[in-house]
Design brief:
3 copies of one chain form a homotrimer. By secondary structure, chain A is mostly helical. Chain A is about 80% helix and about 0% strand. In chain A, α2 packs antiparallel against α5, α4 runs antiparallel to α7 and α5 packs parallel to α7. The longest helix of chain A is centred in the C-terminal third of the chain and has 35 residues. The termini of chain A are close together. Chains A, B, C: InterPro entries: PhoU-like_sf, Put_Phosphate_transp_reg, UPF0111_domain.
Chain lengths: ~220, ~220, ~220
C-alpha cells in the first residue's frame, strides 16, 4: 500500500490531474482522426490542411503535458504516485509525437499514394487512441477497474495487429520494391505509424501498473 | 543509506523477486543461443524454427516482466529500491526485444547469408547474456559484490567489442555494397544485434547502481 | 514542498553534485566546438583529429555521469530530488552521445563534404550547449531562477530551428538525391545532429521540472 493510497481517504477528489488527462485523451483521438483521413483521402489539399492541424494539436498536447508537470511541482499530494503521473503524461506525449511524425513524414517525403498497410494501421491507431481515452476517462473513479483493464487488453490486441501488418508490409517492400528511395520512404512512414501503436501500448502498461498499486 | 537498506535487517530473505530475475537471466541465454545458431547455420528450416522459438521465449520474457511488476504492486517492502527493480526488469525486457528483433529482421528481410560481422556479434550477445545471468544469480546474496562487479566489467568489454565490429562492418557496407537495398537490410540486422549488446550494458549500469546503494 | 526542499535549510551548500554538473556542461561545449569545426573545415586531417578528440571527451562525459551516480549512491541528502539528478545526468550523457555519434557517422560513412544544413545545425548544437552549460552553472544558486528559465526558453528555440532545417534538408534529399546510398548517409548524419538538439531540449525539460519543485 503506497503513501498515496493511505492519503487518498483524506484528500478531496482530485480536480487537477484528471481533467488534464481527459483532455490529453481526446486530443489523441482528434489527432488520430486527422491522420486516418489524410491517409484515406486522395485530396492533397485536405491532406496539407490536416498536416497543419496536426501540428497545432501536437502543440496543444505539449501544453497539456507541461501543465501536468506544473501541477506535479505544485502539489504535494497527488491522486496516484508522482512517478506514475509523470510516466503517464510522457507516454501520452509520445503517442502524439508519433502520430504527428507519421503525417509529417508523408508530407516531407511526398508519399502521395499511401499504401493499403498505411490505411489499415491508421485505422488501428484511431482505435487504440479511443481505448486510451476511455481508460483515462475511467481513471478518476478507480471503482471501474474492470473497464480500464478491458481497454488495456484491447490496446494490446490492436498493437499486435499493427505489428503484424507492419512486418508483412516491410517484408513485401523488401521483396517487391526495387527503388531503394521509395522503399525508405514507405518503410519510414509505416514505422512512425507502428511506433504510434507501440506508444499506446506503453500507455496501457503505465495504466496497468497504476491499477495494481491502487487496487 | 536507503530505507530499504534499513529494512533489510528485519525482512526475511526475498523469495519473490530474485527467482523471477534468475528466470529472466536464463531466458536471455536461451534466446541468445538460438540467435547464434540461426546466424551460424545454413539450414533455412532450422533458422525458421529458431525464429518461432525466439518469439515464444520473448513472450515468456514479457510474462516474467509482468510478474515482477505485479509483485512490485503487491509488496511494500522490496529487496532493493522499487525504481531499481523496475529499471532492471525493463532493461532485461529490452535485451529480449532486440535479440528477437534481430532474428525477426533476418526472416522478414530474407537475409539468407549472414555476414561475418553478424556471426561475431551474435557470439558476443551470447557472451553478454551469460554475464548478465551470472550477475542476476549473485544478486540475491549481496556478499558477492565482487562477482557482480566482475560480470559488469565483462559486459562492458563485450559491448565495446560489438561496437567496434558494428562500426567497421557499417563502414565496409558503405564502401563496398553498391546495392542500396542490400545495404539497408544488412545495416538494420547488424544494428538490432548491436542494440542487444547496448541493452546488456544498460543492465550492467542498473546493477552497478544497485550495488553502490546497498553496499 | 518536497522532502529535499525542507532539508535544504539544514544542509550545507552542496559541494559534490554542482561541480560535476558544471564540468559536464563545459564538456558539452568543448564537444560541440569540435563538431562544428569538423563540419566547417575541408581539412580532412583536422577532422580525423577532432573525431579522436570527441571520442576522448565522450569518455570524459561518461566518467562524469558515473561519478554523479556514485555520489547519488553515497549521499542520503541531495540538493534536489534524486530522480531529477539522475534524469539530468542521463540527459547530459545523451547529448554527448549524439554529438559524438554525428562525428562518428561522418567518419564511418566518409561524408567528405558536409552539407549546408549540417553546417547550420552544428552551429545550433554549439549554441544549445552554451545555454545548457549556463543553466547548469546557475543551478547551484536557485535565486537566479529567471536566468535558468531564460536559458531553457533559448534551448527550445534553438531546437525548433534545428528541427526546421532538418525537415527541409530531408525533404530536399528525397526530392533531389537520386543515389539512395548518399541519401542514407546524409540523412543519418543530419539525424544524429538533430537528435543532439532534441537531447538539449530534454535537458531543458528536466531543468524546468527542478525549478518548479524547488521554487
Amino acid at each position: 500500500m503506497s503513501l498515496n493510497s493511505i492519503f487518498q481517504y483524506f484528500v478531496p477528489k482530485d480536480k487537477k490531474f484528471f481533467p488534464l488527462f481527459e483532455q490529453a485523451g481526446s486530443n489523441l483521438i482528434d489527432m488520430a482522426k486527422l491522420l486516418k483521413e489524410s491517409v484515406h483521402t486522395s485530396d492533397l489539399q485536405l491532406r496539407k490542411n490536416n498536416s497543419k492541424l496536426l501540428e497545432d494539436l501536437e502543440h496543444k498536447g505539449d501544453n497539456l503535458t507541461h501543465q501536468i508537470h506544473l501541477e506535479l511541482g505544485k502539489n504535494f499530494i497527488t491522486p496516484f504516485d508522482r512517478e506514475d503521473i509523470h510516466a503517464l503524461a510522457s507516454s501520452l506525449d509520445d503517442v502524439a509525437d508519433f502520430i504527428h511524425g507519421a503525417s509529417n513524414r508523408m508530407e516531407l517525403y511526398k508519399v502521395t499514394e499511401p499504401s493499403e498497410a498505411m490505411k489499415e494501421i491508421s485505422s488501428l491507431i484511431l482505435e487504440a487512441t479511443e481505448h486510451v481515452a476511455k481508460a483515462l476517462f475511467e481513471l478518476k473513479d478507480l471503482k471501474n477497474i474492470r473497464n480500464i483493464t478491458d481497454s488495456c487488453v484491447r490496446i494490446n490486441s490492436v498493437e499486435n495487429k499493427a505489428d503484424y501488418i507492419f512486418d508483412k508490409a516491410v517484408a513485401e517492400l523488401f521483396e517487391y520494391e526495387k527503388d531503394a528511395i521509395n522503399l525508405i520512404k514507405n518503410k519510414e512512414v509505416l514505422s512512425a505509424m507502428e511506433d504510434a501503436t507501440d506508444k499506446c501500448e506503453d500507455v496501457a502498461n503505465v495504466l496497468e501498473s497504476i491499477l495494481v498499486k491502487n487496487a
